[in-house]
Amino acid sequence: MNRSILSQRIKTEAKRLGFLSCGISRAEFLEQEAPRLERWLKKNMHGEMGYMANHFDKRLDPRLLVDGAKSVISLLLNYFPKETQEKDTFKVSKYAYGEDYHHVIKDKLRQLHDFISEEIGEVKGRAFVDSAPVLDKAWAAKSGLGWIGKNSNLLTKEVGSFYFIAELIIDLELDYDTPVTDHCGTCTACIDACPTQAIIEPYVVDGSKCISYLTIELKNEIPTEFQAKMDDWIFGCDVCQDVCPWNRFSKPHKEPLFNPHPELLSMTKKDWEEITEDIFKKVFKKSAVKRTKFFGLKRNIEFLQKES
């Protein structure tokens, strides 16, 4: 089967599996990303995320992750919910409403890998979902799935940015897509709206100031300088996405596993303040919110209570 037909069949199968879109790029060294990543790390914008400084070379070259890698297949999976939380409550990022995306996407990637092997014989490769040294957004942009916006998220004209990014890196030559142009223009909505001024300049986010970092990655106490700046977020933050004009095109996902636990949407501030470990385990049994553990979530809630 020629590369062009196979590439098209892979994209068709990705759609069948529920992915929003699929783009393919050559597995090679990310030349433009190297100096950017180095500058970001030198300025300690990764805060306590020590793992970001690990495997620097692997982060920039997929051939060091997968022997004989030839292609990076990038995929987007929508998580924009049909319903969101009540207005006046403590907020959880939309991506964590349903089941942990790692498991949901890994299963789909496995099926896609199997499909490729069935089509042409054994293909070596690995699936990646935000849990290895892979620059997801850079690969997705390189394969034409969108552009990196001023909030450092991947943006797409048709569907905005409420989606997960994943990769299948394989040892097979395919047809390669080309990047799209930047469509942020003069807009600064995300920069203006960021509650902690974490977007320090267009396209540069100081991770150590981001609410997602403060509520999930940071293991110590949240610094008092962020008092009255957390905007009621207790797990993650969607502000820079919520205000992005391109997200007016977001459509609800069709993945049942991403549907929220019914109790989550109706929880009031009082419910959050009185949450017990049993309720935490019930509501977030399979959710990404488990990453903070019960005590991490309580820390975040208590930090916000000090503001009132």
From TrEMBL:
Binds 2 [4Fe-4S] clusters per monomer. TRNA binds at K219. One of its GO terms (cellular component) is cytoplasm. It is an enzyme of class 1 (oxidoreductase). It holds the Pfam family Fer4_16. [4Fe-4S] cluster 2 binds at C194, C210, C237, C240. InterPro entries: 4Fe4S_Fe-S-bd (IPR017896), 4Fe4S_Fe_S_CS (IPR017900), QueG (IPR004453), QueG_DUF1730 (IPR013542). It catalyses: epoxyqueuosine(34) in tRNA + AH2 = queuosine(34) in tRNA + A + H2O. [4Fe-4S] cluster 1 binds at C184, C187, C190, C244. Cob(II)alamin binds at R59, D130, N151, L154, I165, S212, C237, D238. Its EC number is 1.17.99.6. One of its GO terms (molecular function) is metal ion binding. Keywords: 4Fe-4S, Cobalamin, Cobalt, Cytoplasm, Iron, Iron-sulfur, Metal-binding, Oxidoreductase, Queuosine biosynthesis, tRNA processing. It is found in: Cytoplasm. Its cofactor is cob(II)alamin; [4Fe-4S] cluster. Catalyzes the conversion of epoxyqueuosine (oQ) to queuosine (Q), which is a hypermodified base found in the wobble positions of tRNA(Asp), tRNA(Asn), tRNA(His) and tRNA(Tyr). Belongs to the QueG family. This is Epoxyqueuosine reductase. It comes from Maribacter aurantiacus.
